[in-house]
Design brief:
Layout (H helix, E strand, L loop, with lengths): L1 H16 L14 E3 L2 E3 L4 E2 L5 E2 L4 E11 L19 E7 L5 E4 L12 E3 L4 E3 L5 E8 L7 E9 L9 E6 L4 E10 L1
Antiparallel strand pairs: 1-2, 3-4, 5-8, 5-9, 5-13, 6-7, 6-10, 10-11, 12-13
Length: 183
């Protein structure tokens, strides 16, 4: 009888040690379970990998201009020569007013035209800071006409989307920023 009891206890212990320790463990954001513990992918932490870690750098790799004002409060952007706007994009850090990017001049951009500024390497180290995207109509003979400014935060936590939409429907301006992250 003792032999049978030891045999039964040994089998029960063996079955318990073979139990899947990951059976009831859910790992988020691409994490995987190993021996009952979540192993998180880069950029996430926490018991279930649900906490996004602040990146050390965000790179803006492209800026798509998807919408801009058709006119200057009912008037042509360049009334003396009756042409469409010559668009310049500027990115400025709000905290100190430092401009960190200025595009070249896009001549006579017709209303409804969408275009991109590609192959950018705009590195942002203070990822939670506020920035302003400014659109201007370049004028050679006078001050540039403001088309609209939008202030935004590049990263607000939670995840690492490959794009960020920055828009102001009242101004009629919409950008799509293409991003990459370094942790």
């Amino acid at each position: 009888m003792k032999k049978l009891l030891f045999l039964f206890l040994g089998a029960a212990l063996s079955l318990t040690s073979c139990r899947d320790k990951c059976k009831d463990v859910e790992c988020n954001n691409g994490g995987r379970c190993d021996e009952g513990e979540c192993i998180c992918v880069e950029g996430y932490s926490g018991e279930d990998c649900s906490t996004a870690l602040e990146p050390s750098k965000i790179r803006i790799t492209s800026i798509e201009i998807q919408d801009f004002p058709d006119d200057d409060a009912g008037a042509d952007w360049d009334p003396l020569i009756e042409t469409d706007p010559d668009i310049i994009i500027k990115l400025t850090r709000v905290s100190d007013g430092n401009q960190i990017y200025e595009s070249g001049n896009f001549d006579n951009v017709a209303p409804g035209t969408q275009f991109s500024i590609d192959a950018l390497t705009i590195d942002v180290i203070s990822v939670t800071e506020e920035f302003t995207l400014s659109m201007r109509d370049y004028d050679q003979t006078s001050a540039d006409d403001p088309m609209g400014d939008i202030t935004f935060n590049l990263w607000t936590g939670g995840s690492f989307p490959p794009t960020k939409i920055v828009e102001d429907t009242a101004l009629g301006i919409k950008y799509v920023l293409h991003l990459s992250y370094t942790h």
